[in-house]
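Record 1 of the preview.
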Amino acid sequence: MDQSSLNGDLLQATGSQGEQQNARRVAHWRNVVGFWLLGLCNNFAYVVMLSAAHDILKQQETNSTLPTPPSVISLSQSSNSSGRYDCNPTSTAAVLLADILPTLLIKLTAPFFIHAVPYGFRVLVCIATATASFLVASFSTSVWMSILGVIFASVSSGLGELSFLSLTVYFNRCVLSGWGSGTGGAGVGGALLYSGLTQAGLTPRITLLIMLLVPVAMAISYYFLLVFPPSFPQWSSRGRVPVGGVGGATPEHRPLMEEEGHEEGLDTRGSPAVKTTGALSCTEKLVILKGLMRFIVPLAVVYFAEYFINQGLLELLFFPESALSHAEQYRWYQTLYQIGVLVSRSSLFCLKIRCVGVLSALQCVNALLLMLAVYYSFLTSVWIVFAIVLYEGLLGGAAYVNTYYYISTESGDREREFSMAAASVGDSLGIALSGAAALPTHTYFCSL
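->
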């Protein structure tokens, strides 16, 4: 009787362990899929709204009711046919500034105070501003309203990226792979869906109203799909230090707080006296930010080089002998770039690249090569540019996901949340600087 009872207890314990493993497996995949959808929605709304803003600006200028694909707009306005290059003087500087400056401002300032705002409220702000961007742009009657729509989209995307990257520290590190893949998919999916709906005959206004499903999907993904840890402070800013959620830093990599001992003294063994509990002080955040420079600078360089290519050079690389028109070549440049980003941002599941600085150097080589190609016209086929642009997207996407992966592995539990948020300024800073460089470069070549 005792042996039978013992066997029954063992079977029950085994069954309970199996149920727990199944529950953990389900929670694991719900979180990975949830972060994939959050990445998709966060960037999807931004891509679609920005494309629609170009359409609406064009319609307001021409008083036309027919939608025009964004890539055609960028190549058809004020065409400079008398010069050496088949291009148009850039006329979207206001949209570009509205695009990147709000995001850059948020990423520069928010890491120092955003910890006081609970995640539940942050996501509500992201959803509200994404919804506002669609509504304002769809019912726009003037240029300033369209620009306001872009600003709302920029705020939603910037705050969302900063918050969701910080949020990953409360989950297994594999959710970073889901987030990166989702953000990569947004570029391809957003552009194809918007183009498909407008080409099917829907007006930009109707298309944007349909896109209101995107903020709804973001809300469902965050509030209903993710499986949060029991102690997660959803609506409270107290107790925000995630300990052990994704695993601590490895013994050989705890660099972000290493200089703190110079300010707070040494312990009895002569090692830096680093606090392990409590909220980070402003001084500690500045020390961490200094340590993050080796991640932020390479990421900024990668984005500077690739957006210098995308904003200043690609339109100028036109091959008249190709069967594709100028607009079609430009559209394929953008599509192949986004495909490269999607593939490499999904690569964290199977490949990790430690030295992001190498990716930065290779991207700068791409920018230099294509600038020389624009000036000297030594590339003989559009297919060569297609290959380079695809490679450009692969480098940029790989730099993005690997930067945040290694930040998460090389920072301690206490500083990881701030580090993930603060490092997000790298890409926006690179894009802003590339815009400042690409616009005069583009103007110079068009004047030849």
